[in-house]
Each structure stands twice: as C-alpha cells, then as structure tokens.
Automatic annotation (TrEMBL):
Pfam families: S1_2, WHD_CvfB
Family: Belongs to the CvfB family.
Domain S1 motif: from-to ranges: 23-84, 89-151, 164-226
Source species of the chain: Colwellia echini
Protein name: GntR family transcriptional regulator
InterPro entries per the UniProt record, alphabetical: CvfB_fam (IPR014464), CvfB_S1_st (IPR039566), CvfB_WH (IPR040764), NA-bd_OB-fold (IPR012340), S1_domain (IPR003029), WH-like_DNA-bd_sf (IPR036388)
Amino acid sequence: MTDQRTSEKNTEQQAIQLTTHAQIGKFNNLKVIALMDNGAYLNAGELGEILLPKRYLPEACKVGDLLKVFLYVDSADRLVATTTTPLAQVGEFVSLKVVQVNKMGAFLDWGLPKDLLVPYNQQHTEMEVGKYYLVRVYLDQSTDRIAASSKLDKFIDIWPADYQTGDKVNLIIGGQTDLGYKAIINDLHWGLLYENEIFQHLRVGKQMIGYIKQVREDGRIDLILSRGSKNKVNDFSEKLLAHIADRGGITPLNDKSAPELIQRTLGVSKKTFKATVGNLLKNGKIELVKEGIKLV
C-alpha cells in the first residue's frame, strides 16, 4: 500500500509543471524548499521564498514537492501562499458580495481570509453592504496588492473583435438594458443578448456558454444562447429524452402545451421543443400517444 501511495504521489508530482515566473493573484506550481514548524517555504523565483502556512500543507509533504498554490498579500501585508481556491484570479470578472464598507472602500467576500478591496475610485456606483457587484480583479502594480474594480469598460473592448457567426464563446452576464442583457465575451468584449431570444432566467455575474449571432458593421456584437436549426435540435434531444425517461418513459408535454409550461419545465422555447420532437419522431426514438410523448 505504501508503494502504491508513493507511486500515485510521484505521478501527481510529474503532472504538475514548475512555474518559472510566479505571479501574484494567480495559481502557481512552486517547489517546497524547506519545512518549518509554521509551514513550508516555497521557491517563487524573483518573488523570493514564500510561506505556505501549516494548515494548508498536504499530508506527507516533503522538500522537493511541487504544490499548486495561490499567491496574495495577507492582512499583515505579507506575501503568502494558500491552497484555498478564491472565487476569481487576477484578470477575471466575477460577481461578489459586499461584506463591509469603510473609509478605504468596499470589501468583497472572494473566498479567502482577507476580503477583496474595491477602492472608492474604482467603484462605478457607490457600493452597499449585502449587495452583489460584477467586478474585475486586478493587481495594483505599485503595492502588489490584489484589488477589484466595478468600472468594467476600461478592461473591455481593448482588443479588436475577431469572431465568426456561430462561434462558441464564454459569457458573463453584465447587466440588463432596454433591449436585453449585456454580456462579457471571453473576458474581452461586450455583446448583447436580445430579450425576445432569451428563454431562461439570467442574473448579473452568471457564467454560461453562448454563440456569436453576428458582428455588426459598427463593430457591436450580437449573441444568442443556443445554436440555430439543426445544432439546436441536437443539443436539446438528449435533455428531452432524459426528461421523459425520468418520468417513467412518458411525459404529458406535447405540441398543444403552453409555451410557458415548456419553458418552465425544460428551459427552451416551444419552437425548439417542437423541432426536437419532430427530429426524435423521425429517428424512431419516441412516439405520440394520448397521454403525451412516450419513449420507444
């Protein structure tokens, strides 16, 4: 058993590549160079030797091990390491809750012992305790402290958009407008989801997959949450089959069901539902019966 554990540990260590240039506010793979009563000291290159407190040490840790750790400045202004995963790293957008406001600014809970500061000059609107705000996590180059900003526009649309219709992209919902919802595309650009093409509940900060509908002549980007036509049907087929199977092989939903009921039950439009039903009927996977739709 001991040999097996050693082999597993060695395999795990080989899978982790050493970080050559450690970065504050990011996860880094650092080598253990000393074990002390208060924890392990890690080689962070130009950043020097950094302490990983004892409470974060993995079992059987030894000198020479590579550990995946997050680097940040703690409440005592010391650069430290942790194996705890924060809700976001430097360079990422995230929706976080304000837990305190004082003369320095607003403090957000981001999953680490030291809360994340949003200075007053980085607040798009004055923040209030208990509310959630979409922010960008950044590194203050003058202090090496990690902070956040709700002035999102200065971090977005810096790079030219290079998307094709149908491209799959990562989205973060950024806020509601008269036309629908703004969304951040791949942490780089603003795009728009139109209200009449949204068939699910959205909230600011929600992360999801979407698709490029079109890049307009003025450079603005239209988005959609599901692929069109054939791909949309294929994407939903498995979900519908699972829904029927979970109900003993039959569902009362049919082409006469109200669009609101279909949306509430399955999270898709009636148009998508009917197209998927037609596709599954054609392939002999379901049949229409008096009680609704039945698995074949």
